[in-house]
TrEMBL record:
Coiled coil: none annotated. SMART domains: HATPase_c. It comes from Rufibacter tibetensis. Its EC number is 2.7.13.3. Signal peptide: none annotated. Keywords: ATP-binding, Kinase, Membrane, Nucleotide-binding, Phosphoprotein, Transferase, Transmembrane, Transmembrane helix, Two-component regulatory system. InterPro entries: HATPase_C_sf, HATPase_dom, His_kinase_dom, Sig_transdc_His_kin-like_C. Residues 190-395 form the Histidine kinase domain. It holds the Pfam family HATPase_c. The chain crosses the membrane at residues 12-31, 152-172. GO terms for biological process: phosphorelay signal transduction system. PANTHER family: PEROXIDE STRESS-ACTIVATED HISTIDINE KINASE MAK3 (PTHR43065:SF10), SENSOR HISTIDINE KINASE (PTHR43065). The keyword Ribonucleoprotein does not apply. This is histidine kinase.
Length: 395
């Protein structure tokens, strides 16, 4: 028995990773927001000083000594915050730190500047600079390039990281699946191969003994024959899992009936197995018989285990909602599967049995979904009442 706790550990680890990722994401956003706020405050101070400088220059005497200082140290020192100085009617007097090409017509330049003013208005209220009640200037300004970039930077960064993580996740899970495939296929091929040699020798012995007068009318020979036949079927299953299986149109009702035959002889008489169909008996579906029988056996064996010796199993061929498909419902009156486990039962290694391997349903799902392009799932289940598995096959 493989402990099931590795699966709950794995999902806990997933949760932990998601929690850490969310935390880092949130911390990045919060931290950058703090930086943005600080930088924005600094730009505000810069622009206030700029406006003060302008106000001083407009109101100062022409020959004031301070003019050069203010021009150089305050007005020219602003190399980052885009500003536009206008008159009362928003006619542009001067601008700075704006990306406006020199060699364009006045008309286009004006249009570009008006657009900038609109953008600036949306961001900040313009600062008023007045000259002794006679006229007014306005200073429009917006966030510097740096501030704008910083504002969006964490989101861009997080989006890129998220995209990369998704790609990495898919790449990893793809390679993990490919690896699992190689293990299933390789192991199955090896098993079929190893069984092959003693089996053909057994078969020869059986033929020999059957023909020998010494064992005439011995029931033992018939039993031996049945076991050899069974071994042959098992080898065929493994060899089919290990190669690309051939799907053929087969009469499904008959295939199901044959598959049940082996089980019928082996389960207690208190377990009733019934087959029902909504279709004419000759209705076909695309199946590989050795593999499909294996699926039915696995599901029915589980059903028998779930009933603890008494109850009924009903296999029903019904219409599927999917176009061009046919469904086989396998219903039992066993102990049921709790809602939270209905997907987990297909995970390799999941078992609740003392002597279980937890591979039956994993294998069945592989056979149906990978080899038959169909679907296998728990259609419904109620604890204490029973379970219905559904197999969907293509017609
Ligand atoms: N019909 C069913 N009713 C109740 N539980 C089921 C049924 N089929 C499967 N299960 C549950 O799914 C588990 C996995 O089944 P399976 O993959 O066949 O492995 P195993 O039979 O070795 O335990 C079982 O241990 C059981 O708990
Ligand atoms: Mg099983």
């Amino acid at each position: 028995m493989i402990p099931t706790s590795i699966y709950s550990k794995k999902s806990r680890l997933k949760l932990l990773i998601i929690a850490v990722a969310l935390f880092i994401g949130a911390a990045t956003v919060i931290y950058t927001n703090v930086l943005v706020a600080k930088l924005s405050e600094r730009e505000q101070q810069l622009i206030d000083l700029y406006a003060k400088g302008l106000r001083y220059m407009i109101n100062a005497e022409i020959d004031s000594d301070n003019l050069v200082f203010i021009q150089e140290e305050i007005i020219d020192a602003n190399r980052s915050v885009p500003v536009i100085q206008t008159d009362e009617n928003e006619n542009v007097i001067a601008y700075k730190n704006l990306d406006i090409p020199e060699k364009i017509s006045e008309k286009r330049k004006k249009r570009l500047l008006q657009r900038e003013i609109a953008k600036m208005k949306a961001q900040h209220k313009p600062i008023e600079v007045s000259y002794q009640q006679e006229f007014k200037n306005y200073i429009f300004y917006k966030d510097s390039e740096l501030l704008t970039q910083l504002r969006y930077y964490p989101y861009v960064q997080l989006t890129v990281i998220a995209c990369l993580s998704v790609i990495a996740y898919y790449a990893f899970s793809y390679s993990r699946k490919a690896e699992q495939n190689r293990v299933w296929v390789g192991l199955a091929k090896e098993t079929a191969h190893q069984l092959g040699t003693p089996l053909s020798s057994l078969m020869a012995w059986y033929e020999y003994l059957k023909g020998s007068p010494k064992f005439e009318n011995e029931p033992i020979i018939d039993e031996l024959g049945k076991d050899v036949k069974r071994l042959e079927i098992i080898t065929e299953r493994f060899s089919n899992i290990g190669s690309v299986p051939v799907l053929k149109d087969e009469p499904l009702l008959q295939v199901v009936d044959n598959a049940i035959g082996y089980l019928r002889n082996r389960v207690s008489s208190k377990v009733a197995i019934n087959i029902e169909t909504e279709f004419p008996p000759e209705t076909t579906a695309k199946v590989n018989i050795p593999l499909f029988e294996w699926v039915i056996e696995n599901i029915c064996k589980n059903a028998v285990d779930a009933m603890e010796g008494k109850g009924s199993i009903t296999l029903r061929l019904v219409k599927s909602n999917t176009k061009g498909a046919i469904a086989l419902d396998i219903q039992d009156t066993g102990k049921g599967i709790p809602k939270t486990k209905q997907e987990e039962v297909f995970v390799p290694g999941y078992t609740t049995k003392k002597r279980g391997w937890g591979l039956g349903l994993a294998l069945a799902k592989r056979i149906i979904e990978n080899y038959h392009q169909g679907r296998l799932y728990v259609k419904s289940s109620e604890v204490g009442k029973g379970t219905t598995f559904r197999v969907v096959l293509n017609r």
